[in-house]
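Attaching the record inline, Q. Sequence:
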Amino acid sequence: MSHLLHPEYFSKIPFKGAALRQTFEALSEEASQEVSEYGELTVAIRTLNEAGRLALLLTDIKEQEYNGEIEIIVVDNESSDDTVAVAKKFGAKVLSFPREEFTYPRSMNLAMEAASTCNVFLTVGHAQLVSKQSLQAGYNRIRLDSVGGVYGHALPSDNASTIENIIAIGNVSFVNRRTHSTTGLGVMAATGAIFDREQWESLGGFNELYEQGGEDGELTQKIIDNGYSVVDEPLLSTHHTHGLNLINTVRQWSAWSKLGAPSRLDRHALMKRRPDLKLDDLK
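Structure, as predicted:
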């Protein structure tokens, strides 16, 4: 029986799909045999009109083989669909905030503030978990001495475009557990990362000047500068893609490359590189 929650998503990755699937399966089997601590964990999910996808993610959370209590918080940006109803159906605590107040760091700070546990897994409503051992593997790493954060990488989802599946070939280099002494693009991206709430609070939270994004990387560097390590845990990876074509993928990567400094949220520029969003949702 597979430990993976969505093994079929690997099949569209050219050349390396089967190998990646086997590697993640082996990592999951290894994690299932690992002695696991009992602990409490908050899963904080940021949403905007994610009803259908959110149900898939919440089902993944219910499928976790986790040795402890999982608190689920949905931070919702005034969804107009059934997102809130879906969240409540799965027993999640819902925190809503006005559409006009949205920025990436604001939504993340609200999620961290609402958490009642010491460790918080931050993700988004359109992501899915890779393994039944995802949260336990992440929790086991965050509880190690001098670890301030644990993260995974983005893998293709069922809506991945051809270019997104091709990009996933590079993820073969990310299936070994690593620690980091500096940050860079893709390190501790908060679509699949556990942050230590005490570190988050003592370091001033996510910098809300980074409206456009990049606040997760800045806080990660502060964690490292504070003497803590950041661990790359492959099983904490999420299936997270947007179905972008080549042009919009280039736009997305170009935007990410500029996240090293604070910038205001340009909602129309965001719409250009994320056509999966609806313009009305960004007003």
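The mean pLDDT is 89. DSSP finds eleven helices and eleven strands in the chain.

More tomorrow.
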